[in-house]
């Protein structure tokens, strides 16, 4: 890594770590940076491996202290998908696209985690009817419950903070700008 990329890597990594640490601060239920960290990593790291590993490690470290749970595989799958959504933003970072991708990440999280709830919880029969019941039971949480609203607002707030702060940093520290290529190196 050259000096320019070292500074960029350090800045992006630091921002993701600070976001992960914010999970330890008092906050409304589910108002967390999780989705935003993954989307931001996918959109800002030029290296695919770092885009996945840095936020994954930050998330895993915070989960070790906050508690491991049976839904972690589903949550981490959503996290990986969010990195890919962020990669889509790589050369398309506009406020509208960031909001749309963040909303898509929240919806994907709802779909996958509730599917995992159906599959793993034992609360619903493992049939199409059981899956339908699971999603139907979750819809009020998705649409009206403060738990989902808090999650969505957390995703949007942290996305605005991460993308906005980094855009300002790039503006005032030009060496943070880099090529727009997403590589595996």
Overall description:
With 185 residues, the chain is mainly alpha-helical. It has one domain. 74% of the residues lie in helices and 0% in strands. The chain contains 7 helices and no strands. Helix 5 packs across helix 6. It is elongated and about 55 Å long.
Structural topology:
Blueprint: H1 3-21, H2 34-44, H3 48-66, H4 72-89, H5 95-120, H6 128-143, H7 146-172
Strand and helix order = HHHHHHH
- Main sheet record: none
Helix content: over 70%
Overall pLDDT score: 87
Offer a concise description of the structure.
This protein has 185 residues and is an all-alpha fold. The chain is built from 7 helices and no strands.
Overview features:
185 residues, mainly alpha, 74% helix
């Amino acid at each position: 890594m050259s000096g320019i990329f070292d500074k960029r890597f350090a800045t992006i990594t630091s921002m993701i770590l600070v976001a992960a640490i914010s999970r330890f601060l008092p906050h409304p239920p589910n108002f967390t940076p999780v989705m935003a960290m993954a989307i931001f990593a996918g959109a800002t790291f030029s290296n695919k491996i770092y885009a996945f590993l840095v936020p994954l490690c930050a998330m895993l470290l915070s989960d070790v202290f906050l508690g491991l749970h049976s839904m972690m595989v589903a949550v981490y799958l959503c996290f990986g998908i969010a990195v890919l959504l962020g990669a889509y933003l790589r050369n398309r970072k506009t406020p509208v696209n960031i909001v749309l991708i963040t909303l898509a990440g929240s919806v994907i999280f709802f779909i996958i985690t509730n599917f995992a709830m159906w599959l793993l919880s034992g609360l619903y029969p493992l049939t199409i009817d059981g899956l339908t019941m699971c999603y139907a039971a979750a819809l009020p949480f998705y649409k009206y419950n403060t738990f989902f609203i808090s999650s969505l607002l957390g995703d949007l707030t942290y996305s605005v903070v991460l993308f906005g702060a980094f855009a300002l940093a790039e503006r005032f520290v030009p060496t943070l700008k880099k090529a727009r290529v997403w590589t595996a190196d």
